[in-house]
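REQUEST FORM: STRUCTURE PREDICTION
Request ID: SP-0412
Submitted by: Lab K.M.
Chain count: 1
Length (residues): 190
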Amino acid sequence: MHTDQAERVQAAFAAYKGGRVNLAYDLYRQLADEGNAESQIFTAWMLSQGVGCTRDEAQAAIYYERAAALGHPAGCFYFGRWLTKSGEHAQAYACYAKGAQAKHLPSMFRVGYSLARGKGVNVDLRDAYTMLKAAASRGHAYALREMALQDLRGGRGLLWIPIGLLEFLLALCWGIAVSMFNKDTDLLRG
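STATUS: Completed
RESULT:
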């Protein structure tokens, strides 16, 4: 990122933090239109929530898609979430997989979840557990929960059912603990 662009990103962030959301939106959108992936993601979020602008889900999706096309892991995740909401699970899975390759934690969870539930891809519990375990080992609360639910259903065999109950309680406690200290964390993004 060029010095000028970095300064403009800082100005947009300062405007947002200072409550000048209309100015922040204008600054982020200009940066997004210039190809800044982080600004594309933030612009998309602002559009999806109607922060500093009129709410526009379709326009938000365009900016998420642009960030994903640039290979930004969070852009891949958020565009994948939009595709999931639109029922386009196979395309969403491809976005999540791209984000997961970059070790983006919420994307890793979504790949495991998709594999476990057959969302856009054939069910593959072995690969699902591998991805969910990788995300859970980094503290992802929903990955812990999904592993527990799969074990409670007997996904790894009958002997894992009681372990699934313990895993579920652990996931619940972990999710509560994390949310008490930081609700805006990738550990709770899914």
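NOTES: Residues 161-181 form the longest helix (21 residues).
Reviewed by: T.R.
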